[in-house]
Amino acid sequence: MTKENQPTLQEEPLRSVFTAGLPEIFAQLNISLVVSTYQAGKVILVRHDADGGAPASDGSSGTMNTHFRTFDKPMGIAAQGNQLAIGGKKTVWTLHNMPAAARKLEPVGKHDACYLTRRIHITGDIDIHEMAYATHDHAGGELWLVNTRFGCLCTLDADHSFHPRWRPPFVSAYAPEDRCHLNGLAMVDGRPKYVTALGETDSAGGWRQNKADGGLLMDIDTNEILLRGLSMPHSPRWYQDRLWFLESGQGSLAYVDLAAARHSPFTVHTVAQLPGFTRGLDFYGPLAFIGLSQVRESATFSSLPLMERLGEERTCGVWVVHIETGQTLGFLRFEAGVQEIFAVQVLPNTRFPEILEWDDERLAHSYVLPDAALAETPLVEMA
What is the CATH number of the domain that holds 130? Predict the structure, then answer.
């Protein structure tokens, strides 16, 4: 059973449908999602709207709201505490949640988070893929980026476009040539640990020659390649003592139990096969939230196992999968305007967030001051 949710926009129609039980899942978990689609140039807030409709036939209440915000080719998303980072075509936006601003949004009392842009860093066009915040003692809150064009992991500082921190040993130089299509990053104990790439190659675009099964997963501390022969892997994640990843070319969610064997080859356990190109992954409790893309008929995506399995019946949306059973518990499917998803990020304890775009007029009247300064500030209408 599905319900339709169609935002009113001036641009190409953006329309989604969702399974009837999905609002109840979001309500019970008290979460929302931030989803990026570089193809549509949007960041999407997926939110449970308790006031959006009558109870469904299964007893769930409310509806799902998909709220679109415009960014320039948004891809990687990282969240930590009140911070939200979005990686774009040549820019990283850093936004902060300002609860006082949320309380002033219309309708009053509905929003419980409001993200305002605080910094914009110009990286140049480095084809930013995944991003994550480090939280270990020596670099608390430091943002790490997968710099796909230069084939490295990097961080940011005020003096440089980016600061290279690691690259695969088989890539011989920092060159803007996308030599191996490094794309995914998993953190362990708040530190970068595992990455995915689409090829063990050292020539410009060399990964394209064997994209159907040339993918790999590796440990950046040891430079050991843990798995080879993967079909376009993305989104590695360390969760519940397992190393999860999406084998996108198979349209699957899988994991490797590194504790079960001391050395490779490790066994890949496929938990679920889904009706799209899987890319974008986050977890909450026993559930995985997985992005699905339709993917175009092109040289990049031709000859993938997924294309042979699904033919033309590929889907774009966010699927909710139980990680122990592989059962799909619900989904949000985009019917128009969105064909490709990159990142999926859970916002815990956040029901109905908002993002103010950087040119939103309300930013001109929203001020955030240190507590000491606030004590000497007259009480006026401030965020």
Answer: 2.120.10.30
> Is the CB of residue 357 less than 8 Å from the CB of residue 69?
yes
pLDDT at 11: 57
In a domain, 111, yes or no: yes
Mean pLDDT, the chain, rounded, equals 89
How many Å apart are CA 34 and CA 30, to the nearest integer? 14
To which H or E segment does residue 24 belong?
A: helix 22-29
Q: Is 41 exposed, middle or buried (0-12, 13-18, 19+ CB in 10 A)?
A: middle
Boundaries of domain holding 256: 72-337
- Contact criterion met (CB below 8 Å) for 166 and 147: no
Q: Which residues of 142-168 are buried (b: 16+ CB within 10 A; e: fewer)?
A: bbbbbbbbbbbbbbbeeeebbeeeebb
Q: What are phi and psi of 44, to 5 degrees?
A: -115, 125
Residues in the chain: 383
pLDDT at 251 over 80: yes
Q: What is the number of structural domains in the chain?
A: 1
Could you say which DSSP state residue 26 is in?
Answer: H
